[in-house]
Write a structure and sequence with these properties.
735 residues, alpha/beta, seven-stranded parallel sheet
């Protein structure tokens, strides 16, 4: 029988079942290799104390500090009615700040003996607030004694103490001890980087990097290790993407060149405006791709309202001109119907192919959604299979087995991040040969992220707004600090309505949710204040209609309404019959009502940066200026408020997406949302390491061009297999 390679050894064998179980369940670490790649988050120096002054709320932290004082209090409670309850309060300090630790009940005896004033220790727990002061309740701790023979100090040999990403069930120092146990196996690590690349860039070997990251003796060790491990992540990921691009370039596709005087020419001739320079440039990139004999894979990103739909429509018309069909995949029925309406309107008589009123160059534009009646659906399917319909717009109903195309030439996917990879793949399989693919996203992605996540797609960017779009003024409304600002916000909404305009009010929640029995746990009062449920559409609509917006037409819109009801509400709003629409984020994508000029976002801190930017893009779509008010109860110094200030300060989606990333850290760039598997990036930060990513992309392209199967670099193949477990390999394959 073969020996299991050292790094594939299950942790159960090396550390014992109980520790291995906690590591698997809470940290997703299963093998020796997984644990070696679980890097320290930061390092503490023995002589230097951590900053208690900037502890994050609600996060699990590890601090090194000194006990300033410890007091035992007795109190009466339901469990100890005679004043026999005991509470130990310990204050620790590190020079930058003080922090309270609290222990209750039988848990007070050991810490009372251990934590004497002057004692230094590592403490680990979740930061909470009690009586307006930060505290750790029942933290785990490990004493740092100065005597040389003490085993804990030995186990943290060297001056730098690694602090690991930890959980309540597995403190940092327990992880450190486990790492020490498996560290000798690091010598067996197979190096994925080609020797020439490693030598050319002066990078240390992988075994050396793993030793230095876990047991550094100097800060230079940490620097060397990080530089090397970042390269691994960037390079292996870029090789995976380069192989995708290489494989795609080998696939056949039908070149689609528009006829000189066809549908596209007729459409351009009847446009009432000229395309922006950006639209011209991006269209040319797309037409060049469509004219090649391997499938286009292009990401079209642009600001809300930058005219992406126009660019996509021209690409679809070019394909129809060339005898093919184009399908546009939208994430929701509302959006599919809206695209269908706006594209049919833009095309006018050019969308009347097969009808008596149709003109010479025309085609049929059909809609296909899940809630269509049987007869309409049958007709739509027939138009697709005969080729009568050149353009189809639909939801994931397009992907069903029953849907057959005559000759699918182009797939346009709207709002990439809402579509599963499998869905895109299924649609791609509907062509006789792989169709060309254009992915549109209105959430601008910084270049490096695009290179890392969508590295297999060529990227086009639309960054200028078409003429006639109005600027949007955005302001933060601090409802708790300045309640009169909120009163003024509702007055502003009234003023917009009096001018003949309309407004949106967006809330995080619907408000008809069943109360979850599991959520019935009692919370402390400060928890309640911190975590009141998000404001709900149904409650707010009711309060507004009876209060500050009394007399105005107020309607609600949310995702759990019947499709027909949703459509009716949207139609009334679009027709100007409703003054104020109180909605959830269903309006985030694609709703186009040029007369809506104001938006009030309640509990704005509960939304992400890019989501706020998306929502804001729904106003200012006509000639009147837009106004967006971000209402929050968060205190001024909180990160949530800083995030809102950032959104209010710029309309540049690319700038915002950078801010968003810096604040969120990118999670998994191969995206939890994208692939549902855990992060492959532990060291690399996409925004800070732009240069490494760009260089790694060049190196990867060269390596793959020279040796597509990587036969000469077995270490790289192994690393790829580890990075691209089954799920992620498929995710990349389906693009």
């Amino acid at each position: 029988m073969d020996l299991v390679p050292a790094l594939d050894e299950p942790l159960k064998k090396v550390l014992g079942p109980p520790t291995a179980k906690v590591m698997a369940e809470h940290l997703d670490l299963h093998t020796v290799g997984d644990l070696l790649h679980h890097y320290p988050r930061r390092y503490e120096e023995r002589g230097q104390l951590t900053h208690l002054a900037d502890l994050p709320m609600d996060e699990h932290v590890t601090v090194v500090a000194q006990v300033a004082d410890a007091r035992l209090h007795s109190f009466a409670s339901s469990k100890a009615p005679r004043g026999k309850g005991q509470r130990l309060e310990v204050t620790i300090t590190d020079g930058s700040g003080r922090l309270q630790l609290v222990f209750f009940g039988n848990g007070v005896h050991k810490p009372h003996k251990d934590l004497l004033p002057g004692t230094r220790a590592m403490f680990s727990g979740k930061v909470s607030v009690f009586n307006h002061r930060l505290q750790l309740a029942h933290p785990a701790y490990e004493l740092l004694r100065g005597d040389g023979d003490d085993e804990t100090v030995d186990s943290w040999a060297g001056a730098l103490i690694p602090i690991y990403p930890a959980t309540a069930k597995m403190e940092s120092w327990k992880i450190a001890k486990s790492v020490q146990t498996v560290l000798p196996s690091a010598q067996e690590a197979v190096d994925p980087l080609p020797d020439s690349l490693r030598d050319g860039r002066g990078l240390v070997s992988l075994p050396e990097a793993l030793l230095k990251i876990h047991r550094p003796h100097t800060k230079a060790d940490i620097h060397d290790a990080r530089a090397r491990l970042k390269w691994d992540e960037a390079f292996v990921l870029q090789v995976a993407l380069a192989r995708r691009r290489y494989a795609d370039a080998q696939l056949p596709a039908v070149a689609r060149r528009p006829k000189p005087d066809g549908l596209l020419t007729a459409f351009d001739a009847k446009l009432p405006f000229t395309l922006t320079e950006g639209q011209e440039k991006v269209s040319k990139e797309i037409f060049d791709d469509l004219a090649t004999e391997h499938p286009m894979h292009r990401l079209l990103q642009g600001e809300v309202g930058s005219g992406k739909t126009m660019v996509a429509l021209r690409a679809m018309l070019a394909v129809v001109d060339a005898g093919g069909q184009a399908a546009m995949l939208a994430p929701t029925e509302v959006l599919a119907q809206q695209h269908h309406r706006s594209i049919t309107e833009m095309l006018g008589e050019l969308a009347e192919g097969g009808m008596l009123s149709g003109v010479e160059h025309s085609t049929k534009v059909v809609l296909l959604t899940g809630s269509m009646g049987a007869a309409a659906r049958r007709q739509a399917l027939l138009d697709l299979v005969t080729g009568e319909a050149g353009i189809v717009i639909g939801t994931h109903a397009l992907i069903e087995d029953k849907v057959q195309f005559h000759d699918l030439g182009l797939v346009v996917v709207d709002e990439q991040h809402r579509f599963g990879v499998e869905q895109r793949d299924a649609l791609r399989g509907k062509g006789k040969q792989p169709p060309h693919v254009l992915v549109m996203t209105a959430t601008p992605i910084p270049r490096t992220v695009a290179m890392t996540v969508f590295g297999d797609l060529e990227t086009s960017v639309l960054d200028q707004l078409p003429a006639g779009r109005s600027p949007i003024a955005s302001h933060v409304v601090p409802a708790a600090d300045k309640p009169h600002f909120l009163t003024r916000a509702w007055e502003r909404v009234r003023e917009e309505v009096e001018k003949g305009h309309q407004a949106y009010v967006v809330c995080p929640r619907i408000g008809d949710e069943e109360d979850d029995p599991k959520k019935g746990k009692k919370k402390s009062p400060e928890d309640e204040a911190e975590k009141r449920p998000p404001l709900a559409v149904l409650d707010i609509a009711d309060q507004l209609a009876k209060g500050p917006l009394q007399g105005l037409g107020v309607e609600v819109l949310h995702g759990r309404m019947q499709p027909d009801d949703k459509d009716a509400v949207m139609r009334r709003f679009a027709a100007g019959e409703t003054h104020v629409l109180v909605a959830t984020t269903v309006i985030e994508v694609g709703v186009n009502v040029p007369n809506a000029t104001a938006m009030v976002i309640m509990d704005a801190d509960r939304f992400g940066v890019s989501q706020l930017h998306q929502l804001r893009g729904r106003v200012g779509r006509g000639s009147a200026a837009g106004l967006c008010l971000l209402v929050t109860e968060m205190p001024e110094a909180s990160p949530a408020r800083q995030r809102l200030n950032a959104v209010a300060s710029t309309l540049d989606g690319f700038e915002l997406s950078r801010i968003d990333l810096e604040q969120r850290r990118e999670g998994d760039v191969l995206g939890q949302a994208q692939s549902g598997v855990r992060s492959s990036l532990r060291m690399l930060t996409v925004i800070d390491d732009e240069e490494i990513i760009a260089e790694a992309r060049e190196e990867a392209a060269a390596v793959v061009a020279a040796d597509p199967e990587l036969t000469g670099i077995p270490g790289l193949r192994t690393a790829l297999e580890a990075l691209l477990d089954e799920e992620r390999e498929q995710y990349l394959d389906k693009g």
